[in-house]
Amino acid sequence: MQDSECITTLKILIVGESGVGKSSLLLRFTDDTFDPEQSATIGVDFKVKTFTVEGNCTKLAIWDTAGQERFRTLTPSYYRGGQGVIMVYDVTNRHTFSKLDMWLSEVDTYATKPNLVRMLVGNKIDKPGREVSREEGLAFARRHAMLFIEASAKTQDGVQCAFEELVQKILQTPGLWEV
Ligand code: GDP
Ligand code: MG
Predict the structure, then answer these.
(1) DSSP-assigned states of every residue in 39-101
(2) What mean pLDDT value characterizes the chain?
(3) Is the pLDDT at 73 greater than 70, yes or no?
(4) Closest among 47, 59, 56 to 23, alpha carbons compared
(5) What gap in Å lies between CA 154 and CA 127, rounded to an integer?
(6) Looking at the DSSP assignment, which residues form a beta bridge with residue 119?
(7) CA distances from residue 48 to 13, 30, 139 in whole angstroms, order as listed
(8) Does ligand 1 come within 6 angstroms of the Cβ of 158?
(9) With a cut of 0.85, is the ipTM above it?
(10) Can you tell me the distance from the alpha carbon of 59 to that of 154, in angstroms, rounded to the nearest whole number?
(11) What is the CB neighbour count within 10 angstroms for residue 93?
């Protein structure tokens, strides 16, 4: 499908602690690849993908932190104009789950669209040694009115679905995007 047939361009952000798999989820979604040696410091910073949900062609501009989250130096421009945010934790690392409140307040502080759609993703479900149950993730998401899915960038479980539900919700939210 031609880009010109897309109804809109959407800005999607990916946030979460270093090492949770943000870049891996992005590369799984855009290039359908997984690199076990993916470096937590060298990220991807930006990817564009044409994505069709329920017959609506959208162009997604997906921003990755490129490792900057380690230094707490994500700038307001990272968040500016974002219509959707994917907040990632690692289900095998409780610390990354306990930092979600911090990420939520960061999004609240910098997001310029107050009704942006937030999706919580519990990543690495393929990995042994789970520390955060599905129920805990779901409860957190419900408490904060977020969409929720568990995923694995390695096996691709849930990855496509996460983006699908996020984009679907954005398109259903009045005033969040323009033709
Ligand atoms: P980021 O810092 O959040 O961007 O995390 P990365 O995408 O760089 O991933 C950090 C490490 O976790 C890398 O070694 C990845 O290969 C690994 N990783 C990412 N996603 C998964 C997953 O779903 N399952 C497993 N087993 N490892 C993953
Ligand atoms: Mg990264």
Answers:
(1) -SSS---EEEEEEEETTEEEEEEEE--TTGGGGT---HHHHTT-SEEEEEEETT-HHHHHTHH
(2) 91
(3) no
(4) 47
(5) 9
(6) 86, 147
(7) 12, 8, 32
(8) no
(9) yes
(10) 24
(11) 20
Q: How many CA atoms lie within 13 Å of 119's alpha carbon, on the beta-carbon side?
A: 27
Closest atom, ligand 1, to C-alpha of 64: 4
**Residues contacting 53, CB < 8 A, separation 6+:** 164, 167, 168, 171
What is the distance between the alpha carbons of residues 53 and 31, in angstroms, rounded to a whole number? 18
Q: How many residues does the chain have?
A: 179
Residue 1, pLDDT above cutoff 60: no
Q: Cβ(23) to ligand 1 under 6 A?
A: yes
Looking at residue 152, its amino acid is S
- With a 6 Å cutoff on the Cβ, whether 19 touches ligand 1 is yes
pLDDT digits (tens, 9 = 90+) for 54-65: 999 999 999 998
User: Identity (one letter) of the amino acid at 50?
Assistant: T
Ligand 1 pocket member 93 (CB < 6 A): no
